[in-house]
Give the backbone structure.
Amino acid sequence: MADLWMQFLLTLDATLRVATPLILCAMAGLFSERSGIIDISLEGKMLMAAFAAGTLAALTGSAIAGLAGAILVSVMFSLIHGFACITHKGNQVISGLAINILASGLTVTLGIAIFAKGGQTPMLSREARFSSIELPFAEAAGAIPVIGPIYKEIISGHNILVWCALIAVWITSFIIFKTAFGLRLRAVGEKPEAVDTAGISVSGLRYRAVIIAGIFCGIAGAYLSVAHGAGFGREMTAGKGYIALAALIFGNWRPVPALAACLMFGFLDAVAARLQGVEVPVIGQIPTDLILVLPYVLTVILLAGFIGKATPPHAIGRPYVKER
């Protein structure tokens, strides 16, 4: 029984680690899509950010430099998306897909040119990564029944970017629902004509939204390569941007429900990792490929079951053309 309890706690601990990039990307998409801009490019921005973070961390030996570079690159790609969709009224889905395709090819090409390692960066040293933070008395608290292991295994031992992801949910909720900027942002995603009539720049609000989205995607990418991982690997995002988008839709474009959806995906991923090699009565050993595909199957099921029930911002995907 004690072993089962510990395995459950370790699975929850892994859930937080796996869900961190999903949470950050979901919050990024929430800002962008609440302003009326479809952001399929979450995947591409996160991938470019992961490459930038891994490259700079490898070249400078600094995780902070990697994080700063990741945010800068992600914001730059967000501005490209904004330039195509906001300034030139382009198709938002096509622009997002173009960024994803560009990121997929560009990261490999630059990786080969810089490091000649097949598109990967060298393995990062401990100093070039964000290390886990052990909270005070974590080891001693582990001996306390029930509460102690929870504090030791789930609360303690995470790096700073995991906490940034959780704080990002609170920040997003506060900004969107408790500030004047958030009110205007929601209004521009619902009825941009009313915002324009009030003398507020629709384009300005949308550009600020995609910049914030770029910042969150940058942190998510940096987490993958210089916190959770020890360097950049080609296609290392593995569809996490799309899963975050599915979580955002499932959460009906609200921060806390989107967080819950991300944790659900993370939990399934963590459970899948622990099921590899496990013998199940009657069935036998579960195939590894089946386990790995479970999170993506869940994504399809959720989208098929809930996308019709979700209520997106009214003006999402529609370029705003000011009436003269």
The two ends are 71 Å apart (CA to CA).
